[in-house]
Amino acid sequence: MTHKKLTVSLVLALSVLSVPLRAAALPTADVRPAMDRAVIHLLALERNQGRPLSPWSYVALAAAGQSLAGTRVGQSCERQLAAATSTTDYCLLVLTLLAAGENPFDYRGQNLVKKIQSAQLPGGKFADNIDGSGQGDGEAQILLNAHIWAVLALHAAGAQVPDTVRARQWLINQQHDDGGFNWYLTARTADVDSTGMALKALGALGVRKDSPVVQKARSYLRNVQEGDGGFSSWGAANPASSSMVIGGLIAVEIDPVAEMIKPGGNPVTAMLSFQLPNGSFAHIKGAGPNEMATQQALMALSDMYYGKSLYFRLREKSKASLDVSAPAERKIRFKVGSKEYQVQADGQERAAAAAAAPFLKGGRVYVPVRYLALALGIPETGIRWSRSAQTVTLTGDGITVTLAVGRDIMFVNGAARPPMDVVPVIREGRVSLPARYVAESFGYRVTWDKTSQTVSITR
Q1: What is the DSSP letter of 357?
Q2: Does 20 score more than 60 pLDDT?
Q3: What single-letter DSSP state applies at residue 370?
Q4: CB atoms within 10 A of CB 379
Q5: Residue 13 has pLDDT above 60, yes or no
Q6: Alpha carbon of residue 224 to chain centroid
Q7: Whose CA is closest to 351, among 335, 329, 327?
Q8: What tens digit of pLDDT does each residue of 139-177 get?
Q9: Which long-range contacts (CB under 8 A, 24 or more apart) does 355-364 make?
Q10: What does the pLDDT average to over 383-402?
Q11: How many CA atoms lie less than 13 Å away from 305 in the CB half-sphere?
């Protein structure tokens, strides 16, 4: 695999409809004009060459707020679908479709999002190829970027990572001792581009700046950062590496300008030094326009301008515009002392039976964990009990909630929530959870009818 292909493979992005928050906080770089000039260049490039741009260019244009109406993005998506085999192929197609306002849940009769979800292996990694095979000798799994792309594509589409906990831990386990990451799993040294991309995926998995894995990655980046504030990869300073770092840091809520300063500048000013008079970016100093360098720089500039990761903004847009990715209405009723509960979903109401009944304790309704999770639509594979740690982990709709028996702290996507006024308990050999805290963490509204002793849970 060539350097160019690998570097292109490490870029992902977003769409529009965000309020610019950070441009005013960047006195050392003129972000908006630089974005506009890059947009004009890419649109002119498509017009002049008479064929589609690289898919990443369409994602970058949408990231900067440019409508893709009238472009050749549709041709690009059709060509990608015809050629897709690897997990990264499908992830790129999903992102291009989202940038174009198309539906990756139903594109040409295919649910591309489900294909990506199905590629997650038992250990948490997303396979190199969409069929679950690897690209190494003997079909060994060798690509970190296949995992990163899958996490980001699913996040951007507003879809669930089937096993968020294992996906996050598998990625953390790939961190090198110096804090960096490498796209090739058996490589002994880290590289800047992969580290930036890993931070983007960690951000999508709920990891933030105070996490030890993020602090180690930031230390690695500080150690290899150059005097002008920029970064090198493959032996040469280039805007692509700075772009990866900028996007990765923003995803975990680290300011690339305020917190990555060197005597000669910061990652943004270093990246802008590669912009040419026609708005394009050169890959190395002294070279001419480079589409890959331009698209990557444009995505990083949009992150700075809007103050939020591309993938987070795309998730907001896709959830608002795609009916299939929006949560369906769901109503659940549990009655204290009754083993039968009701679930209304997809216009159908059904009664289900539990092995144990809900009960009141300390003024709170407790429901056996397995039946509460199933009623919320969490699959069996998303319900895990650790006997040794006495913890319950529930994963569904891209949300992971962890509680421990006898403890008042609940973790949502790895972040501790304020202490609860009740704790999970074991009763009749079954773990029961406070229904309100769990349900509200998954976006439900909970009401209690004292007269009928019924708790109603509604999305």
Answers
A1: -
A2: no
A3: H
A4: 12
A5: no
A6: 26
A7: 335
A8: 999 999 999 999 999 999 999 898 898 999 999 999 999
A9: 355/430, 356/427, 356/428, 356/430, 356/432, 358/334, 358/432, 358/435, 358/455, 359/427, 359/432, 360/336, 360/453, 361/422, 361/425, 362/421, 362/422, 364/422, 364/434, 364/435, 364/436
A10: 87
A11: 23
Q: What is the structure's pLDDT at 5? A: 34
- The closest of 78, 160, 184, 171 to 395, measured between CA atoms, is 160
Counting Cα atoms < 13 Å in the Cβ hemisphere of 457 gives 27
pLDDT at 16 exceeding the cut of 70: no
Does 422 score more than 90 pLDDT? no
Quote the percentage of the chain above a pLDDT of 90.
67
Look-up: residue for tokens 């009623």?
375
**In 192-289, which ranges are E strands?**
232-233, 236-237
Whether residue 346 is predicted with pLDDT greater than 70 in this model: the reply is: no
Residues 212/214/216/220 CA torsion (nearest 10 deg): 180
For residue 237, the SS3 value is strand
Which of 126-140, 331-345, 398-412 is predicted least confidently?
Answer: 398-412
| CA separation, residue 52 to residues 56, 301, 311 (Å) | 11, 23, 23
Residue 57's nearest CA partner among 269, 305, 289, 277 is 289
Q: Which domains are present in the chain?
A: 3-324 (1.50.10.20), 328-458 (3.30.457.10)
C-alpha 54/C-alpha 113 separation (Å) is 21
Nearest CA to 392 out of 354, 434, 362, 355 is that of 434
Please state, as a whole number, how many other Cβ atoms lie within 10 Å of the Cβ of residue 88. Answer: 26
Residue ranges of alpha helices (H) inside 255-402 are 267-272, 291-306, 310-321, 369-375
Q: How far apart, in whole angstroms, are the C-alpha atoms of residue 336 and residue 338?
A: 6
